[in-house]
Amino acid sequence: xxxxxxxxxxxxxxxxxxxxxxxxxxxxxxxxxxxxxxxxxxxxxxxxxxxxxxxxxxxxxxxxxxxxxxxxxxxxxxxxxxxxxxxxxxxxxxxxxxxxxxxxxxxxxxxxxxxxxxxxxxxxxxxxxxxxxxxxxxxxxxxxxxxxxxxxxxxxxxxxxxxxxxxxxxxxxxxxxxxxxxxxxxxxx
Length: 189
Description:
It is a single chain. The chain is mainly α. The chain folds into two domains: 3-87, Rna Polymerase Sigma Factor, Chain: A (Orthogonal Bundle), CATH 1.10.1740; 107-188, Winged helix-like DNA-binding domain superfamily/Winged helix DNA-binding domain (Arc Repressor Mutant, subunit A). Helices cover 81% and strands 0% of the residues. The protein has nine helices and no strands. The protein is elongated.
């Protein structure tokens, strides 16, 4: 499709032209699903991701400014959604691995409560041995859920410095907690 046709198509989409959207969907859907499968290795998830990309595109069509081709824009949006899906799956799988331990700790069993308390105390003790800026970076990432670039902004340091601090924290905590590592595996990975 020539560039001028894409501009017209985008204008039609931004004006709410459902036929233009149908054309866009039928033109790129299969290619985007195939592209998404290369990330997810799951055809059902890939279809859901691509459908979500098209829904978001339609919902935000008035605000979208495309400097590249529509196909490039949709590929990038699909890639970003796939990466989000992969992160979600990683967290979900980590939770599955630790879920039996969590259920053990949540029982009203004094032994389990004491074990949990001891492990929590060991973690706190190990965290307190870290240099303050390293501890802060680790806590912001693992407990507050901040991304590296957000921590860099908050601590007013480079992204590389944050990477080094978190790596150092993980290394020191692994060493300090090696006897209790099975419990902390989800925190440290």
